Predict the structure.
Amino acid sequence: MALTASSQAGGCDAGRQRLLAAMPAPTGRIRPVACVLRSPLMNRRITQRELRNESGRIMRALDKGRSFTVTRNGVPVGDLVPVRQRAFVPAETAVAAFARAPRVARARFRKDVDASIDQDPTPRV
């Protein structure tokens, strides 16, 4: 697979590289999430024609968790990403998680909501 200039620079564009240079160096092989999500190892560029002709192969690859960037005349026009599978959480686990949550002062919460959101029921003209 041919690497683009941004992927050769660590998977991030030049502006992000400058921003990352100002941040403390991460330990180990940890990379910022934005760079990992745009990594050429996870996202392959395919042409519009390849999407049309190889749709079965591409769908099987999506099932396996691979992502694609679709290009038209060499210009990216969209991303094909697999749908994240929902995880079942037992009710007991959810109740236990909320049991440890801090209590909400209802009157204060209502006051904060009313102060920040216009809840006038009359229609706007």
